[in-house]
Amino acid sequence: MWPVWLRSEYRHFIRIFPNGDAGCELFLTDSVRKNRYDISSTPVEVRFDLPGTRRITHMSELSFRGIDIGRVEPGEDLVEPLVETTNDEYPLQDGDVVVITSKVVSTAETRFVAADSVTVTDRDERVADVTGLDPREVAVIYEESEVLGAIPVGDIGKDLLLEQAVDTETAEEAIERMPAALLTDRNGRLCTNAGVDWSNSPEGMMTLLPEDPDASAREIREQLEDRTGADLAVILADSEIMGSGSMDLAVGCSGIEAIDSNFARTDLYGEPKVGGVDLVANEITAGSALLFGQTDERIPVVVARGLDYEDGEGVPNAGGLIRRGLRKTIQLTTRLKAREWF
């Protein structure tokens, strides 16, 4: 019966390959309906037949292969089990993009903070009082980033989150743990809570993002290339609040140009198109997240194969753009509302 092909409403085909005897579920969600498929084996590869062509790819097929490297303990070598597993199950090839969750990289780099060791200031207490966050977490967030604002997650999305919950009581508890999120600028990247995370962390510990995600991606890529002989790219992924849910985005990369600089190409009618600046690293990361999961799937690595990409280093620093964008958005919104009223 394998492989199994599934078709979504938007003509994207997904092919599932088995790996082991554990059961699995694949969720396809769009604005019209939610389809749930129960498959009798764990999915380790997803293939997308992409309609049409794009300048960066000129391809008809892109595959994603999940790699279970086992549990990585703090301070352990991440590359060795990755090389051993891929050599046995899915040997790396030239052009492969290795996407790794930032959490497993942070674990290997022992990027943990013991909550009881954090010194809390009056500012941290005041911010915690307003947001409902743990003051120790607030202190770490300020240490890791510049805080730009706050998002009342509980007030905005509680009803929707409860609708999507597998257990209402557990969902209520989760929402209470993060009633709000701080909007932060961490090394030029806009994110919530500076990537500081209590989930999937040792008890009483907070996990931080890798200190320099681009440098971590580069080091992993160089080690992988040295041990496999393949010409590769590496992307580090982290989940982020996005619209009515969450989405995995690239926080660091090496060996791949993160952005497809294709602005102002002409459209089908010969007119200059506003779009075309594709966030390639984010798109690959989002596809990989179909296999990562967010709970106990234990697939921390995905190999994307078939993408024709440009060589590059690092996720672009958007710190100045973030500040300018926030300021200009407020200014334009103020002018717009003034025109509505007068």
UniProtKB/TrEMBL annotation:
> Sorted alphabetically, which InterPro entries does this protein's record hold?
F420-0_gamma-glut_ligase-dom
Which top-rank group of organisms is this from?
Answer: Archaea
Offer an example of a GO molecular function term for this protein. Answer: coenzyme F420-0:L-glutamate ligase activity
**Short name of one Pfam family for this protein?**
F420_ligase
Q: Which residues form the Coenzyme F420:L-glutamate ligase-like domain?
A: 66-306
User: What name appears for this protein in its UniProt entry?
Assistant: Putative F420-dependent oxidoreductase
